Amino acid sequence: HNPLLQQSVPSDLEKLQQALLKEFKMRGLVMADPEVIRLMDTTLQAGPSQMIPVSITKDGGFYKNASVATEEQFASLQTYLRELVQETGIKITEGDVSISPYRLRKQVPCTYCPYKGVCQFDQLIEGNAYRFLKNEPKEKVWEKIAERQGGNEDGNEETRQ
After folding, report:
1. Which end of the chain has fewer CB within 10 Å, C or N?
2. Is residue 22 pLDDT above 60, yes or no?
């Protein structure tokens, strides 16, 4: 996320402000709580926010593409990430220090990685390969996290008989 304008400076001040807002717009998840949303963007009415990745419907709900998560989903995500970091740490202490950067469409972390000189990742070397990530719908991602934790999409445990 680089909030510098990569274009010629618009001569119109309003266009410049719009371009800057677009570059500074938050990325990621926002709590699916109308009060939190209002505090984060006090100018938001129905439609898309210029500051956060949320669009509000006329009746006050969220559009399907809004980057929102419930409190339960945030807790579930936090648990999932904590487990993932622990598993990764265990693998490292067991000697697995393999290089396995991801690739999502044309994006690769190696482009910005400060450890390129140490890492020496090269696709031409046997054993060096990208992990190709799928750009999946958010519903599917929440389902996978819930499955891993033995619960439903909201992160709550299912009752098993």
Report:
1. C
2. yes
Q: Which of 27, 21, 20, 19 is nearest to 52 (CA)?
A: 27
User: What's the pTM?
Assistant: 0.73
Show me where the domains of the chain are located. Answer: 13-68, 70-149
Could you tell me which residues come within 8 angstroms of residue 3 by beta carbon, excluding any fewer than 6 positions away?
A: 20, 23, 24
Q: What is the mean pLDDT of residues 53-57?
A: 89
